[in-house]
Amino acid sequence: MVSRRAAPEACKILIQRMMSPQPVLQIRDLSVRFGADEVLQRLTLDITVGETLALIGESGSGKSVLALTIMGLLRGGTISHGEVLLHTGEMTHDLTHLEEAAFRKLRGNRMGMIFQEPMSALNPILKIGTQLGECLILHRPDLQTRRARQDEAKHLLASTGIPDPVRALRSYPHQLSGGMRQRVMIAMALSANPALLIADEPTTALDAATRLRILDLIRTLAAERGAATLFITHDFGAARAIADRVAVLYSGSLLEDGPTESVFANSLHPYTRGLIASLPDPAALHPDPKGRMRLTGMPGAIPSLRDRPNGCIFNPRCPLVMPSCLGAPIPMQSFGRTRRAACLRPDLQAVLP
Q1: What is the DSSP annotation of 120-173?
Q2: Coil, helix or strand for 44?
Q3: What CATH number has the domain bearing residue 91?
Q4: Closest Cα partner for 188 from 143, 240, 152, 229?
Q5: How many domains does the chain have?
Q6: Domain span holding position 55
Q7: pTM assigned to the model
Q8: pLDDT tens per residue across span 292-346
Q9: So where does this one cross the membrane (predicted)?
């Protein structure tokens, strides 16, 4: 496993970020529609240099739609409100209105993405060396010779923990294990040292041991390069392992946002509490009188896009619902210096300093 101790360069980046955090990605009041259906509703999020933000939510909550919107890969949907800004050094790119030609210059260069299933993302009829080489030709003009690109490709694969990079470069995707294929995807996503890395459920198809190694690898390599990382998952346990901060998405709406350990220790929104209570962790398991183990679950299901409730979008499933939760939509509110939640419970006003 890759050590979680950051390299000296990464430590410098983290210290600089703590002293003066600089946003890499700014999402402002973003709404995305597919026809009449609003999939994302007025999202506002920032990710700073070197930070890992985990976006958590059930299937169908809009997580992948947000990733595809940022990358300019959304098909059939439109941005109906708000803006998405990418900051790269002295440049600011408004991704909301960017033309496809401009997006192609940013993808793989200033924005990298690790997809959920590498067998679908990798070309099955091309060797790994050919596919990684194409990334370097497109996005690394400093590597002017074939030999330089081959050396860099070997270095990239070695940095992801692949034990025999030369053999991997000569292999087709089906000749590698799932973990090795995902390491190749990580190498490709980081090949041009992007300012923003998006990882969309990158460990879904992996076994538990490999999943932990891949999470550790993503976090370590992103920190070494100072990349801001958007980690998309439905797994709160994975988020806790990799993220500095978490944002909780439910049916296209943001319900809570804050530092990871703070959210785990003191969740503000009932939905977040329900997600944490449902984790397959010994602390969340309760034996019944016959000695069997059962998980704590949440009643109900995520609403359809065309049947969202009035007021708080979670109110039909919320155990703490109040009359005031049934009127107008509930905006995100600040609690203390680092926490936000879309909740009206009066006790929250005294929860945080």
Answers
A1: HHS-TTS-HHHHHHHHHHHH-TT--SHHHHHHHHHHHHHHTT-S-HHHHHTS-G
A2: strand
A3: 3.40.50.300
A4: 152
A5: 1
A6: 8-110+192-257
A7: 0.87
A8: 556 677 888 888 888 899 999 999 999 889 999 998 889 999 988 899 999 988 6
A9: none
